[in-house]
Amino acid sequence: MSTDDLALTTRLWFAWLCFFKVLFDARFAARLWGARRALPPSRAEAPTPSPVPATISVAVPERAGALELLALLQREGRLVDFLQQDIAAFSDADVGIAARVVHEGCRRALRAHASVEPVRPEGEGQRVTLAAGFDADAVKLVGDVKGQPPYAGVLRHRGWRVLTIELPQRVGEHDPRIVAPAEVELG
Amino acid sequence: MRFAAGIDLGTTHCAIAVAPLEVEGARPDVVRVPQLVARGQLEALALLPSFLYFAHASEGPQALPWDAHRAFAVGEYARARGADTPTRVVASAKSWLSHPSVDRRAGILPVGAPDDVAKISPVETSKRYLDHLVQAFEAQFGPDARLPDQDVVVTVPASFDAAARELTVEAARQAGFEHLTLLEEPQAALYAWTLAMGDAWRTHVRPGDVVLVIDVGGGTTDFSAIAAIEKDGALELVRVAVGDHILLGGDNMDLALSHLVRHKLESDGNVVDRFQAASLVHACRIAKERLLGDASLDHAPLAVASRGSSLLGATLRSDLTRDDLTRVIVEGFFPRVDADARPATRSRSGLTQLGLPYAADAAVTRHLAAFLGRQARAIEPFAGRAGGALLHPTAVLFNGGVMKAPSLRARVIETLNAWIQQDGGDVVRVLQGADLDLAVARGACMYALVRRGRGLRIRGGTARAYYVGIESAVPAVPGLAPPVSAMCVAPFGMEEGTAAELPPHELGVVVGERCTFRFFGSSVRRSDGAGTILEEWRADELEELPAIEVTLPADGRREGDVVPVRLRPQVTEVGTLRLEAEPLQPLKAGELWQVELSVRSSA
């Protein structure tokens, strides 16, 4: 499956996962950092900017939600600023300070716009039993996977399910790719 | 379908709650208000921040789904622009609306706006917030449900005087509201409480109770006392006292904390720019709420991002400690004071900058002590029992965002109980309220239902007695202003929809000229009837209000003639005071001239 085929919901979820993993898992962050360099320029960067951004509202309809989410997380929690900056040269203390800004803002934005609940109510580390016909989208089997249900195993990650998500709506003719305008102070 | 609608037209935010009238037992629901939250981003939020942003021409229209060409924005985006483009943003319009020393119909806002901004008046600003609510309501319920056609209740601070109430109605009329009713915010809070409690509220408030409503919002502090009395075997609620208009609220507290943290940052060698200073206020509010909400924390970390796109290495980091919070907020704004403590007042200097008359004393508890002291006798006419040196509430209802904090509520209750016990009374109960941010809108909607007989109505009438100053005819003495006596033109507690007869004590009005009269209000003189003349009064009994004015058209009379008139007071169904001047010798039947209450004071 090419990354272009990932559904929006999957990407949303993955973006969140990455955000926290990058923050708290230095090895994961380093690997992702490497992967980022190895990737060809993303499609968002690829097209040469048209001289006149005429009818922008129809240009990227299928990504509107993703752009709005990025704009929201940037506005509330400076997420794009954070991810775009090379953190390798900074101390953990510096990263921690910036993470407070990002965490506080993004958490507020998430709570205001989406309701998210764990897929499994049990605590991680508890034993759970999966009956036949369990939802394979919601529960991933890992480890020594074989045989027939019911399965007994240990809950390693509770999973997350987005119950509702509501993003700001676009209104007027604005370029949706601008998730944060440049700011020029006068006077 | 028709609705009962309650509109909280607040200093820092507006909210609207509605309930369908045809559904028996319907409860007020908050209508989320679509608004710009960023450039070109629309979102429906429960609160509409009371901010208005005039976009520069270069920015293009502030399009909304219902208005593609709007040149200004109202709500969250406007609030956010206040931090980076303050001269183009109107804030606290409601405080300007009640500011007696400015012309509230003149384009004065935003203060200090650049030349390309067509400034607007405080009345116009309120009108635009209401316009926005009208449009948001239509966006939700369709073009057939116009908000002005509903049963609308708009709230005002209890401390708003007759002129500020009148101007609020004027703004509403301009926004298309023909039929509306005003309700005092603390009363709305009590209605919201009865709503949240259901029928059980009657077991919590019984005859003999006096409920003190303490409403500390973002910009203002408002006190009211509501007595529960028994009349003909039934419970009645009567609003017996309201406090002064105090411009003091949560915004002051966040600002005070941000000054402290800024000082800490700067003494560590950091430079805090204007943008960061604004973010710092915001960060302080969050840290304050965290510390106030969780007594086990001894500090809350604060981080303020730089303006540029680099976060790492450029983010300012500080801590708000429990000690800071206690010193600045708890001791600064809610100090333990004695019952006879009174707020410091600022001496008025002749030359003041155009600005809001913020409270000179930041201590909410001192303002509260002053209120209870002044209103010590407020319940005597109802309860038939004498108070002490203070009004003794038996229960307290908190309202406003600041009072969400348990530790601040505890401090107020502790201080209050100490005063009352010292004065020979009993400790108060706390009425556990509903959502303090939305209570006023919900309560206002509830009041619209109550007016239709679905619940117990709080009676109250005018919160003040009003007086016209009459200059005595005495020989002039150099250097001494002629003594002024005050004639009561509207007694305390005049109810909506009633008029009073004044004895024919004559006031002379000059034909063809604007005649102004000094005007006074009293929130403590309860027994003066219409026509009572006071030769003298204690300084704290009567408060001088902006002058009132009447203009007699020459129409059939000779210019310059003095025409004797008598005043006819009336409290409208809307809840505003109306004064009319009636000539003693009318040229035609029913000749009446409107007396203008809300003119700019010459002081």
Question: Describe it for me?
Answer:
The complex is a heterodimer of chains A (187) and B (603). Chain A folds into two domains: 1-118 and 160-181, no CATH class; 120-158, no CATH class. Helices cover 39% and strands 11% of the residues of chain A. Chain A has five helices and five strands; from the N terminus they run αααααβββββ. Chain A has helices at residues 8-24, 26-38, 64-77, 79-84, 92-113, and strands spanning 114-118, 127-130, 151-154, 160-165, 169-170. Chain A has a two-stranded antiparallel ribbon with strand order 1-4. A two-stranded antiparallel ribbon of chain A has the order 2-3. In chain A, helix 1 (8-24) crosses helix 2 (26-38) and helix 3 (64-77) crosses helix 5. Chain A is globular and about 70 Å long. Mean pLDDT of chain A is 79; it is low at 37-59. Chain B has four domains: 3-183, Nucleotidyltransferase, domain 5; 201-247 and 341-452, 2-Layer Sandwich (Nucleotidyltransferase, domain 5), CATH 3.30.420.40; 250-333, Actin, Chain A, domain 4 (Alpha-Beta Complex); 465-595, no CATH class. In chain B, 26% of the residues lie in helices and 26% in strands. Chain B has 13 helices and 29 strands. In chain B, strands 1, 2, 3, 6, 10 and 11 form a six-stranded mixed beta sheet that branches. Chain B has a six-stranded mixed beta sheet with strand order 18-17-12-13-14-19, with helices on both faces. Chain B has a five-stranded antiparallel beta sheet with strand order 25-21-20-24-26, with no helix packed on it. In chain B, helix 3 (122-141) packs across helix 4 (162-174) and helix 5 packs across helix 13. The longest helix of chain B has 20 residues, at 122-141. The radius of gyration of chain B is 25 Å and the shape is globular. The A-B interface holds A 68, 71-72, 75, 78, 81-82, 84-85, 87, 90, 94-95, 97-98, 100-102, 104, 168-174, 176, 180-181, 183 and B 36-43, 60-65, 68, 84, 286, 301, 303-305, 307, 309-313, 315, 317. Strand 5 (169-170) of chain A pairs antiparallel with strand 5 of chain B, so a sheet runs across the interface.
